[in-house]
Amino acid sequence: MGIPSGTVSFLFTDTAGSSTLWETDRMGMQASLVDHDRILRSAIEANNGVVFATGGDSFSAAFHTALEALQAAVSAQLALEAHPCWWRWPR
Q1: DSSP code for 61
Q2: Which of 9, 43, 61, 67 is the most buried (most CB within 10 A)?
Q3: pLDDT class for 4, splitting at 50, 70, 90?
Q4: What is the DSSP letter of 8?
Q5: Within 10 Å of residue 62's Cβ, how many Cβ atoms?
Q6: pTM score, whole prediction
Q7: 3-state secondary structure of 47
Q8: What is the per-residue pLDDT across 37-82, written as a single tens digit (0 to 9) for each?
């Protein structure tokens, strides 16, 4: 589908409380971030989204429709919750 244009829906993510986790468990966060990024990118791309920026543990993505953005957000949340390292991410 390519890069969305016209009316575009955006998805912005950020891990709440991650600064504290970086301070208390840097190695755990480094390991978790690899999986986090893979999960987020997969959910975004599977729903026709385009990642246009990342920073730390945050993603910015654009979608052709609001439904695609919502589906990506739900898919990412479910995958993160199911991940065996879920305890490293704040709830």
Answers
A1: E
A2: 61
A3: confident
A4: -
A5: 20
A6: 0.86
A7: coil
A8: 999 999 999 999 999 999 988 999 999 999 999 999 999 999 998 8
From the number of C-beta atoms within 10 Å of its C-beta (0-12, 13-18, 19+), residue 35 rates as middle
Task: Measure the CA dihedral 51/69/76/40, to 10°.
Answer: 0
How far apart, in whole angstroms, are the C-alpha atoms of residue 69 and residue 36?
18
Q: Minimal CA–CA distance to 38: which of 18, 54, 20, 21?
A: 54
Alpha helices, H only, the chain:
18-24, 26-46, 66-82
Count of CB atoms situated within 10 Å of the CB of 70: 14
Whole-angstrom Cα distance, residue 85 to residue 45? 22
Banded model confidence at residue 18, pLDDT cuts 50, 70, 90: confident
